[in-house]
């Protein structure tokens, strides 16, 4: 399936809310409830402590009809310089399993490398084995179990990392 990435802004809030409604299974899994308008606003404006909004980019994933089918939340230089954090990759259920997540990830990896990034980090809900399998297929490795926050709710997450630097061959 063809797709395109574009940076989302406040004017995209209605489309983001529709996506959050269509993909509400994620928030129900994470928190037991869903509130698409609030989730849409949070996707646009939430970022980690000690970071600024300028460090965050929320990409929209659009199909060939210019319909929002997913989002990718990305924070640069977090938790360390040259590390990037994927806060969320969320696709509407109707396009899951069509290699879009893999393609978007490959595109973002190339962008991060060209911007000098050396690693990508992300957190996976402990109760989301499908997401863990997806990220492991992309080359991410388990680092530790910790407590993370999703929509203001504390929960166990697995921290994963992908190194973008190749080890020196001897």
Order of helices and strands: EHHHEEEHEHEE
Strand content: 25-35%
Number of helices: 5
Give the CATH level 1 class.
Alpha Beta
- Number of DSSP E strands: 7
Describe the global form. globular
Care to describe what's here?
This is N-acetyltransferase domain-containing protein. It comes from Enterococcus dispar ATCC 51266. GO terms for molecular function: acyltransferase activity, transferring groups other than amino-acyl groups. The structure is a single chain. With 170 residues, the protein is of the alpha+beta class. It has a single domain, classed as Gcn5-related N-acetyltransferase (GNAT) (Aminopeptidase, 3-Layer(aba) Sandwich). Helices cover 31% and strands 34% of the residues. It has five helices and seven strands, in the order βαααβββαβαββ. It has helices at 13-22, 24-31, 36-45, 100-114, 129-137, and strands at residues 4-7, 56-62, 68-76, 83-91, 119-125, 141-150, 153-163. It has a seven-stranded mixed beta sheet, sandwiched between helices. The radius of gyration is 15 Å and the shape is globular.
Explain the layout of strands and helices.
Layout: E1 4-7, H1 13-22, H2 24-31, H3 36-45, E2 56-62, E3 68-76, E4 83-91, H4 100-114, E5 119-125, H5 129-137, E6 141-150, E7 153-163
Parallel strand pairs: 4-5
Antiparallel strand pairs: 1-2, 2-3, 3-4, 5-7, 6-7
Task: Write a concise keyword list for the protein shown above.
170 residues; Aminopeptidase; 7-stranded mixed sheet
Brief overview:
The protein is α+β, with helices and mostly antiparallel strands and 170 residues long. Helix content is 31%, strand content 34%. The chain has helices at residues 13-22, 24-31, 36-45, 100-114, 129-137, and strands at residues 4-7, 56-62, 68-76, 83-91, 119-125, 141-150, 153-163.
């Amino acid at each position: 399936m063809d797709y395109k990435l574009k940076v989302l802004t406040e004017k995209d809030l209605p489309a983001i809310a529709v996506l959050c409604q269509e993909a509400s299974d994620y928030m129900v899994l994470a928190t037991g409830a869903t509130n698409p308008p609030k989730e849409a606003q949070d996707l646009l404006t939430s970022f980690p402590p000690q970071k600024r909004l300028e460090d965050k980019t929320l990409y929209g994933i659009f199909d060939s009809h210019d319909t929002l089918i997913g989002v990718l939340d990305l924070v640069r230089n977090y938790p360390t310089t040259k590390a990037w954090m994927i806060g969320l990759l969320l696709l509407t259920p109707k396009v899951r399993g069509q290699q879009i997540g893999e393609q978007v990830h490959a595109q973002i990896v190339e962008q991060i490398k060209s911007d000098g990034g050396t690693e990508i980090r992300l957190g996976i809900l402990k109760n989301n084995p499908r997401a863990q399998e997806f990220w492991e297929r992309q080359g991410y490795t388990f680092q530790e179990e910790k407590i993370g926050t999703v929509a203001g709710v504390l929960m166990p997450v697995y921290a994963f990392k992908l190194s973008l630097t190749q080890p020196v061959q001897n």
